[in-house]
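Weekly modeling sync, notes
Attendees: S.R. (lead), two postdocs, one rotation student

Agenda item 3: backlog of single-chain predictions. S.R. asked that every request posted to the team notebook include the full sequence so nobody has to chase files. The rotation student volunteered to paste the first one in as an example of the format we agreed on. Action items at the bottom.

Example entry:
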Amino acid sequence: MGGAQKGPEDAITDINVTPLVDVSLVLVIIFMAIAPFGLQAGIKVLQSKAGEKVGKTSASHNVNLKLTKAGKLTVNGREVDFITWPAVLQDAITKSESKMVTITADNDNRVGQVVNLLDTSKRAGAKKLAIMRSARKEAAEDG
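Predicted structure, as returned to the notebook:
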C-alpha cells in the first residue's frame, strides 16, 4: 500500500533542486559584492538649458582652457606649450576662487584631446569642469 518499491532499473523522476539553490546563492553573493563598484561614475555631465541666466560665478573667476583646430592651447588667454601646460593650469586653478575649469574646443578637435584636458584638469585640482564649443562660422555667416 505504501509506495511501489523502486528497483535498480527504474528511472529517477525526482527533481534535485539543491544544485539550483547553490548556484543561485553564489550568484546573489557575487552581485552583492560587485554592486558597489557599478555605482562609481567617472565624470558627471550636466547639460545647460537654453536661455539660462549667467551662473553663480563669473567667467573671470574660472580657469579658461581653449584648444584650437590648429592644436594651439591657451590657459586664460595665454598660449602655452603641451609640455608645461599642466603646471600652468595647476597654478591658475590654485589662484582661482571657484576652482572651475571651462574647456573650449573646436568641432574638428579629437575627442581624445578634449578628454586629456578634462583628466589633467581634474588631477590639477579642478572641482568643476565645463565643456564649451567654439562659435561656429556658419552661424555667423547665416545671421
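Discussion: group reviewed the output briefly. Residues 138-143 have pLDDT under 50 and may be disordered.
Action items: rotation student to repeat for the remaining queue; S.R. to check formatting next week.
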